[in-house]
UniProtKB/TrEMBL annotation, chains A, B:
InterPro entries per UniProt: GntR_C (IPR011711), TF_FadR/GntR_C (IPR008920), Tscrpt_reg_HTH_GntR (IPR000524), WH-like_DNA-bd_sf (IPR036388), WH_DNA-bd_sf (IPR036390)
Organism: Actinophytocola algeriensis
A Pfam family the protein falls into: FCD
SMART domains linked to this entry: FCD, HTH_GNTR
Protein name, UniProt field: DNA-binding FadR family transcriptional regulator
Chain ranges of the HTH gntR-type domain: 1-69
Key words, A-Z: DNA-binding, Transcription, Transcription regulation
Tagged with keyword Manganese: no
A GO molecular-function annotation: DNA-binding transcription factor activity
Keyword Transcription regulation recorded: yes
Gene3D superfamilies: GntR ligand-binding domain-like, Winged helix-like DNA-binding domain superfamily/Winged helix DNA-binding domain
Amino acid sequence: MPVTDEAIDKIKGMIISGELAPGDRLPKEADLAQHLGLSRSSLREAVKALCLIRVLDVRQGDGTYVTSLEPKLLLDAMTFVVDFHRDDTVLDFLAVRRILEPAATAMAATNMTEEDIAELAKLLEGLEESPTVESLVANDLEFHRRIALGTGNPVLCSLIDSLSGPTTRARIWRGLTQEGAVAKTREQHRAIYDAIAAREPELARSWATVHISGVEQWLRNALGEHGENS
Amino acid sequence: MPVTDEAIDKIKGMIISGELAPGDRLPKEADLAQHLGLSRSSLREAVKALCLIRVLDVRQGDGTYVTSLEPKLLLDAMTFVVDFHRDDTVLDFLAVRRILEPAATAMAATNMTEEDIAELAKLLEGLEESPTVESLVANDLEFHRRIALGTGNPVLCSLIDSLSGPTTRARIWRGLTQEGAVAKTREQHRAIYDAIAAREPELARSWATVHISGVEQWLRNALGEHGENS
DNA sequence: ACACTGCAAACCTCGGATGTTTCCTCTAGA
DNA sequence: TCTAGAGGAAACATCCGAGGTTTGCAGTGT
């Protein structure tokens, strides 16, 4: 195994074992390199890799720190990974969302505070009559994001967030708007909101299922007539 | 933004835009470095980072290649991330599994082939009477893994795989075995299998829910009496 | 008490040199 | 002719050392 990979494992080990706690500062590059028995160059490669997945945070002129290691932060890194997937796996991702989002919406109906719900309402009303594609995407994303937040489970929230990444959703919306399905989406969002506001988890779950399934259905058709794969 | 991060984005862009397809070989370090306008050292840091998340695959003496970018490969990288989470978020992860696994089990009851089911049976029978902790963990992991595979959705499968990472599960089992709950777990596995073999998705879903909830319940108690946090 | 200056620490980037591994070709022998 | 082995070229792995840039902090003057 390359020394760099070894270094990655060792740093990982130091963090997991507790030798390095969240927020701790690592020894300076030169010292840590000597301690791990490799050159600064190689160590930097290891640090950079751990940086990409948000485990480490380097600040020029200051030092290298272990991040908070919160689920949100770490799962956020998954967005980066999801971006790489091609169109032919979009349906698979959507199928996962079809499992997660209804469950999350039901949880949100139970766990959201009144303030959260009020903000959700504001979000729905904040959308103008003929919105641009950008504001539509942003509004849709934020709506589902608030619900995910409302579950009270940061892991679930981050996971949904990643899966609904801007890329995937943007692609979906770009087509959806052309079909004029905006109104229906807005109605369904409203229905989901009403169910949450009424504290009806099962109703909320059902509307969420309807919502996601509609998108899935449309996407399946769009992909079917567009690409001829499989 | 540091030049290395820029390089990461550029390489990512080249892949997403299709300029670099899965399996393609990148230009050699020196050339790519010049093309991107940075030094080899900095480029190597970028490559190493993309390597950690399985987007690139470097082979000494050969070259650097874009991986297949399959969901399994990319989501696998998430296992690395999940390893960093501390005990206080285990319940949150388990809550997500409680959503995903029942749904997956139901899907498996519909989609698994007869061969898959036969192998699942073999797996259950293959466990000796008084297994070691290691074989127990391995068997349990493989059982749920086969079911996840049986959904036919690689994204869902990899996701479940990552969340049920060895670390988390090992910790859970270590305690479970001490309580003598092995028999009950085995019964539930058997019940899940029977439901799948009978092609009863809803029954399979219910048993999976029962199974996961049992683990969750036990874990909640164990954490409650052990740690005094929150 | 506040603001500015200066310095030191730490990371950032670069370029080159040397070691290792892999792949491919060429050759010698069967 | 086919095959096995030797050799070399290509590409990555690792290291080292030299500046450059940013940040945090202490010291200083008002």
